[in-house]
């Protein structure tokens, strides 16, 4: 009875300690590593946790604690939040669930009714929610942003921010900056004109909007031939990062449309396949860097900008690290966007270097064609939306990687019809990869997936953990030098972050397509990841 | 993907006979391979493995009812032909193109040159002199590691069957690949590879046992790129070969052509 009373007291204590999540808490999330307050853990998006209870020595003692089985068979790509013992996650497409983070028992479920007009490319799903104060925010696949009471799941406001019938959608977790909720539009496969917008967190009223394709009279508009800017895509698929020192919010921008045929959109097609740095108060563009000008290979910059402060060539510098779908790893100066380094991390044949300004030197042969053009990396990229990680302890940058991967790019003429896909052709596989045809279809020189650790100072590979199949899994690192990830094969595993050695694995029976995270409740560390259509949570055996 | 309807009388597909081939795209071997799978999964029920089950058409010999470019064929696959038995396929452009690749590649290969086979005699050879039933399964009987031939006549062309008998290693379909594993205690197991991941490997061995191995427990494992089936080139006369091919072509399984 005494034990029971003690447990009740601890539980009550943890619940009573729930304080509103101020923006100051989000900014200083590393000071409360027991929580996971934003999609990537911190505004730097390193997906690195200071928790050290689980170590390379004891990780073999991880034991499954609970499973949340979502009522959706859609791919599960989200990362939950944990705030003072309460977990907030999604149930595809856009339901929100609050659970006891220690037991998985549900406090409440908010069911969102998606408009029949919704038509998101690539999955009817959400990658997560954001929190500010006692309010949760979700962007929906029919292009709404909804604010919910974090204690009850009751809707506070619901704003339509895009036209779902035209292909606009939101699939990423919103970003919170100060008193604003920032989201970007998906829909690059439907000929949308992309934008990022900030809403007042209290009212949902639009505070600013940044079009990812400049309009007439704006710088960069000339990078689109004719009227192609109106249907040029340049969408947003994943959450951005934020630097409080410069008050800049950084976002990766997706491919130009039509994806595989650039004939009618001559020019660089700004700001497709770029990172844009926006003033978080006004949405004004401070700088941009375009990774893949005039793309025809679907090389969206759908990656999380990872912010790192470290010496660069002898002096302290505020950096941005980026492993891009186009197969190259980049280091930029995040204050001014200066290109510092770019280097292939997988086989690449579309470019052969950079000019003095950091613009890639694209080969003349690297163009989609009616007959098909062989390009490395292929359409899913050297990496994709999969969360990378940076560990300040190891100094290594970790990339979920597809290597030996190519596609034949075929272009076709296509007329734009609002609300219909606008691809202009498509990629064809060049090998019978496991993902395409079953395992025994592969040969030794086929595509494979890996967790690849690179030294960001040089771009050189330090080690890799090679998988038989490809991977869509994100990566988490911890201050005990553990690395957690998984892959399409349905394993979730822990590696030694310094050497890449396998330390522990669990068969979860479904592809890991999400970014793992970690938290503590009452002093016990948990590790959570989505796999298949369920959320799995482990802790050390007691 | 939507299967074609089964009514042969309404399954008219490409209009206007023509054997002319337009100058067309080059296709990668992977396209042809994927196209063969897509053809089998989507087209074979109406058009047959030889592509000749619709009157006036022989898809695998480039004979259509009118001259068709690659674009025409891909569009027909995706959009169907209204008012006929040819439905639109729920298939993206890339997959439709692989079927075009398969049709074009097949048209470049001559049809079987052997004829006059007797299926009944072929069955006797298959079950007797040929010793085929020691590895192959037909009509629900026989071992399972080698390809089940119960419906091979509904899936493969005579020329392909003939080639597999004479030169089994020339083309080993990926799903039929064997794997050889050597365990740490030195025992060797061979069987058809069913699955493999970073940590484990699954196969069906030659005794029909489903077996799974942790890769860490194996001394070696390798996928065999050649067939373990012997060539019958010098073991069967040309008439016997024709008989066996005729028998195998007659095996349609439970599928309706």
Low-confidence runs of chain A (pLDDT<50, min 5 residues)?
5-15
Tell me the fraction of residues in β-strands of chain B, as a range: 5-15%
The helix count of chain A comes to 3
> How far apart lie the N and C ends of chain A?
20 Å
The Rg value of chain A, from CA coordinates, equals 22 Å
Helix run count of chain B: 8
Within the largest sheet of chain B, what's the order of strands? 4-3-2-1-5
| Largest sheet: spatial strand order of chain A | 1-32-33-34-35
Shape of chain A: globular
Q: How many DSSP-defined strands of chain A?
A: 38
SS content category of chain A: mainly beta
Main beta-sheet annotation of chain A: 5 strands, mixed
- Our estimate of the beta-strand percent of chain A is 35-45%
**Nearest-angstrom radius of gyration of chain B?**
20 Å
Low-confidence runs of at least 5 consecutive residues of chain B: 1-24
Order of helices and strands of chain B: HHHHHHHEEEEEH
Query: How many extended strands of chain B?
Result: 5
**Pair of chains with the largest interface and how many residues each contributes:** A-B, 31 and 26 residues
Proportion in helices of chain B: 25-40%
Mean pLDDT of chain B: 82
């Amino acid at each position: 009875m005494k034990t029971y009373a003690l447990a009740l007291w601890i539980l009550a204590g943890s619940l009573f300690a729930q304080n509103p999540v101020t923006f100051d808490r989000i900014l200083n999330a590393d000071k409360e590593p027991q929580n996971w307050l934003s999609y990537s853990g911190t505004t730097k998006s390193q997906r690195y946790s200071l928790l050290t209870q689980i170590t390379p020595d004891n990780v073999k003692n991880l034991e499954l604690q609970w499973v949340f089985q979502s009522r959706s068979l859609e791919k599960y790509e989200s990362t939950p939040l944990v705030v003072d013992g309460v977990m907030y996650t999604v149930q595809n497409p856009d339901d929100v669930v609050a659970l006891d983070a220690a037991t998985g028992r549900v406090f409440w479920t908010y069911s969102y009714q998606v408009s029949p007009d919704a038509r998101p490319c690539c999955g009817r799903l959400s990658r997560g929610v954001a929190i500010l104060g006692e309010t949760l925010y979700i962007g929906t696949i029919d292009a709404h942003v909804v604010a919910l009471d974090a204690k009850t799941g009751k809707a506070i406001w619901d704003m339509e921010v895009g036209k779902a019938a035209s292909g606009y959608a939101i699939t990423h977790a919103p970003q919170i900056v100060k008193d604003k909720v920032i989201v970007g539009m998906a829909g690059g496969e439907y000929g949308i004109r992309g934008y990022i917008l900030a809403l007042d967190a209290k009212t949902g009223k639009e505070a600013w909007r940044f079009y990812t394709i400049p309009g007439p009279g704006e710088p960069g508009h000339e990078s689109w031939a004719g009227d192609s800017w109106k249907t040029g895509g340049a969408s947003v698929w994943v959450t951005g990062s934020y630097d409080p020192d410069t008050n800049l919010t950084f976002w990766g921008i997706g491919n130009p449309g039509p994806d595989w045929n650039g004939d009618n959109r001559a020019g660089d097609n700004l700001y497709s396949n770029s990172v844009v740095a926006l003033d978080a108060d006004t949405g004004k563009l401070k700088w941009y860097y375009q990774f893949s000008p005039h793309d025809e290979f679907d090389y969206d910059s759908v990656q999380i900008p990872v912010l790192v402060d470290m010496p660069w060539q002898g002096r302290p510098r505020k950096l941005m690290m980026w492993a891009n779908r186009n197969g190259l790893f980049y280091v930029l100066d995040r204050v001014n966007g200066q290109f510092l380094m770019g280097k292939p991390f997988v086989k690449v044949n579309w470019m052969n270097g950079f000019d003095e300004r950091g613009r890639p030197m694209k080969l003349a042969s690297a163009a989609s064609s009616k007959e098909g053009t062989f390009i490395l990396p292929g359409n899913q990229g050297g990496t994709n939306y999969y969360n990378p990680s940076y560990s300040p302890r190891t100094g290594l940058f970790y990339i979920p990687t597809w290597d030996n991967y190519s596609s034949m790019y075929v272009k076709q003429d296509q007329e734009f019809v609002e609300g219909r896909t606008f691809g202009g052709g498509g990629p064809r596989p060049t090998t019978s990869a496991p993902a395409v045809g079953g395992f025994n279809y592969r040969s030794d020189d086929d595509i494979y997936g890996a967790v690849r650790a690179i030294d960001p100072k040089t771009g050189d590979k330090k080690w890799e953990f090679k998988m038989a199949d490809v991977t869509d899994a994100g990566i988490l690192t911890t201050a005990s030098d553990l690395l957690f990830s998984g892959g399409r094969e349905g394993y979730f595993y822990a590696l030694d972050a310094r050497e890449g050695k396998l330390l522990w694995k669990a068969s979860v029976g479904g592809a890991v397509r999400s970014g793992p995270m970690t938290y503590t409740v009452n002093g016990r560390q948990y590790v959570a990841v989505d796999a298949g259509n369920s959320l799995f949570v482990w802790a050390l055996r007691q | 993907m939507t299967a074609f309807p089964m009514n042969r009388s309404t399954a008219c597909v490409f209009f206007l006979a023509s054997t002319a081939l337009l100058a067309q795209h080059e296709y990668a071997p992977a396209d042809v391979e994927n196209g063969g799978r897509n053809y089998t999964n989507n087209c074979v029920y109406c058009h047959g493995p030889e592509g000749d089950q619709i009157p006036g058409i022989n898809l695998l010999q480039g004979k259509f009812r009118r001259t068709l470019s690659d674009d025409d064929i891909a569009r027909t696959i995706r959009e169907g032909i209204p008012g006929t038995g040819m439905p639109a396929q729920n298939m993206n452009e890339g997959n439709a193109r692989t079927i075009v690749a398969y049709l074009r590649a097949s048209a470049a290969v001559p049809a079987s040159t052997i004829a006059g086979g007797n299926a009944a005699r072929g069955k006797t050879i298959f079950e007797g002199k040929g010793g085929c039933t020691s590895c192959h399964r037909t009509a629900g009987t026989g071992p399972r590691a080698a390809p089940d031939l119960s419906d091979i006549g509904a899936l493969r062309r005579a020329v392909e069957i003939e080639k597999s008998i004479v030169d089994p290693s020339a083309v080993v379909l990926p799903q039929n690949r064997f794997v050889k594993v050597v365990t740490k205690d030195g025992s060797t197991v061979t069987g058809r590879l069913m699955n493999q991941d970073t940590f484990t490997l699954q196969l069906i061995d030659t005794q029909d046992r489903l077996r799974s191995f942790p890769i860490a427990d194996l001394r070696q494992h390798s996928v065999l790129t050649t067939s373990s089936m012997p060539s019958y080139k010098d073991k069967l006369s040309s008439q016997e070969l024709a008989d066996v091919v005729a028998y195998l072509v007659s095996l349609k399984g439970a599928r309706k052509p």
